[in-house]
Specification:
Elements: E1 3-5, E2 10-12, H1 13-29, H2 40-54, E3 60-65, H3 72-84, H4 87-92, E4 94-99, H5 106-116, H6 120-123, H7 131-143, E5 153-158, H8 160-163, H9 170-181, E6 186-192, H10 203-206, E7 213-215, H11 222-233, H12 242-251, H13 269-280, H14 283-289, H15 293-308, H16 316-329, H17 339-351, E8 355-357, E9 372-374, H18 378-387, H19 393-402
Helix pairs in contact: 2-3, 14-18, 15-16, 15-19
The structure holds adenosine-5'-triphosphate (ATP) and magnesium ion.
Magnesium ion binds next to helix 3.
Length: 404
């Protein structure tokens, strides 16, 4: 095995690659909160809000709203990490983490709050008349000790919307009531993927909420994803072999990196060619080659609809009608199919993720009427048609007439 020499250190290539494995494995498999990508404004917003409570002792409430995997938890964790690095916050701020999937009623939730605040012994066998009394007792207990002022408490409610189903929304009401009125500085942070979450809140609960919301709507395009991947693959400054890390980080700009191994430590021309082929390959166009002629016809019908309705969503009935027009217009080899067969083909396109149901349309709507969008653009369709084996000429003509 070759020895690499660098000014400061000398590591064998094997050692370097083992290190790389270790770092990347830790990044991908264990949760180490890095800084989330592309959400700087939301990050600052949340940080400022939490600082108001943690540093200035003001109460607050906020909802972080976004679809699954949008990075709500990641955003919160990384803000908390930075916040807890401040000395005065670290010594002072208390955190209570609740999750609607775990604390399925308010009694369980209160028990968990008591446990996380380490007040089980203080509460002992005391019996409280109401939830509010119990919570007030807990917050009061935090004040005691050698501190004259209250310690700020951060209540984090993951799957926030589930707490709205608890009887009388007692926990939500009381936490938000404290956040709005009480002497103890508390911040209530709710995480949810329900955009309509406010509609779930009872009037008295809603009126106590600050109505601050931080939205995380992932709108990354291919370019951003490439950047995220590069960021994730970059070796840190502290990497033991500086020269290796520098070379590695330069090479990350290329897909050919995936070919690098101890037996193949350098990027060679064929690797670059293979990578460039990968870059230009369109996975959707590849999927199109495997479609039946009927499915292809439906795609072309959808393309028609897209140009007629300028990209507005459409439903199966509209696609079927468009297809029927084509069938009836010409005398050709494409024979008609029964409607259920066409519907099956349509559903297959959905499974292949070539069409996507619109968010917000009720899933209870009959599938023939559910609004969908086509996830292909005209150039992808034209490319695919050209390469489609034995594509009937009529279909090709129909496609090009639809696409100008
Ligand atoms: N902005 C981002 N920058 C970098 N990585 C991100 C970003 N957003 C999401 N991720 C990645 O996606 C993963 C999922 O994000 P996260 O668990 O925070 O989603 P979530 O919104 O909390 O989802 P859920 O509603 O299921 O709890 C994260 O572990 C992270 O690796
Ligand atoms: Mg989460």
């Amino acid at each position: 095995m070759s020895k690499r020499k660098s000014k400061e250190n000398s590591f064998s290539l094997g050692e370097c690659i083992a290190q790389v494995h270790m770092i990347l494995r830790a990044r991908f498999c264990h949760y180490i909160p890095g800084k989330p990508f592309g959400v700087e404004a939301q990050y600052k917003n949340l940080m400022d809000l939490l600082k108001q409570t943690a540093v200035h002792g003001e109460s607050n409430s906020v909802l972080i709203v976004g679809p699954r995997g949008a990075g709500k938890t990641m955003l919160l964790r990384s803000v908390l990490k930075e916040l807890m690095e401040m000395k005065q916050v670290k010594e002072n701020l208390l955190q209570v983490h609740l999750n609607g999937l775990l604390q399925t009623d308010d009694k369980i939730a209160l028990k968990e709050v008591t446990r996380q605040l380490q007040l089980e012994n203080v509460v002992g066998d005391k019996v409280f008349g109401s939830f509010a009394e119990n919570l007030a007792f807990l917050l009061e207990a935090l004040k005691k000790g050698n501190r004259s002022s209250s310690r700020p408490v951060l209540f984090i409610l993951d799957e926030f919307d589930l707490f709205a189903h608890h009887r009388n929304q007692t926990l939500l009401y009381n936490l938000l009531d404290v956040a709005q009125s009480a002497q103890t500085p508390v911040a209530v942070v709710g995480l949810t993927c329900r955009l309509d979450v406010l509609e779930l809140l009872e009037k008295r609960v809603k009126s106590r909420f600050s109505h601050r919301q931080i939205h995380l709507l992932n709108t990354f395009g291919f370019k951003e994803y490439v950047e995220i991947f590069q960021q994730q693959l970059t070796l840190p400054k502290e990497f033991p072999d500086g020269r290796f890390a520098q070379e590695w980080n330069q090479n990350i700009q290329m897909l050919a990196l995936s070919q690098v191994a101890v037996s193949n430590p350098n990027i060679r021309l064929p690797d670059l060619l293979a990578a460039s082929r990968l870059c230009t390959m369109d996975s959707k166009a590849n999927v199109l080659h495997g479609l039946s002629v009927l499915e292809l016809c439906l795609i072309i019908a959808m393309k028609h609809l897209n140009s007629i309705y300028e990209g507005e969503p459409f439903n199966f009935e509209m696609v079927y009608n468009e297809f029927q027009k084509f069938i009836q217009r010409r005398t050709h080899s494409i024979h008609n199919f029964e409607k259920p067969v066409v519907l099956k083909a349509f559903e297959h396109l959905h499974q292949l993720e070539l069409i996507k149901p619109m968010d917000g349309t009720s899933t209870r709507a009959q599938k023939e009427y559910q609004l969908v969008k086509l996830l292909l653009d005209s150039s992808q369709i034209m490319d695919a048609l050209q390469k489609y084996p034995h594509c009937p000429t009529e279909v090709q003509l129909w496609a090009s007439s639809a696409l100008e």
